[in-house]
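Repro:
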Amino acid sequence: MQISVTFRHMNASDALREHATQRVDRLSKYFEKPSDAHIVLSLERHLQKAETTILAYGMVICGKESSSDMYNSIDRSVEKIEKQIKRYRNKLVKLRPKDGAKLKMRFKLLESPGDADRDLASDLPPTIIETRDFQARPMMIDEAVMQMDLLHNDVLVFLNSKTDQINVLYRKNGQQYGLIEANPHNAV
């Protein structure tokens, strides 16, 4: 397993790097193929955050934790990932994303003009404050639900491997999900 450790807003420490590497390396027993792991250790005010991301079998598994102790944060983020891997181990191996065309997508976050002058604000177009590129990968709907759960996201855009159409899966209340399917055959 290839492991990289990044420090943000704090001094790099060999002891922390070694601790994080050892904890994540223990997870390699769950993977048959080599995988990549990236650990981001950051300090925000009084909280020490550890964010661990593992790419295995074409899926992204993420665990985030924060506490007053960085060692505790690292341990808890790795424990979260281990629980997710144990829960989805069979699905991760069996339901690998299919090799196939990946569709490049772009996500833009827009911000409307301020509420200072409402008459003037309606004439101004919204401004783009963030742009992110990503790939919509081919997957089945149950794989998409699993990927959302692993990433702790509320929305996932993917390429439905049955229909080869873009689908949007979103989380509703609790464990309910909504699915938006693009269907060009019923276009008006």
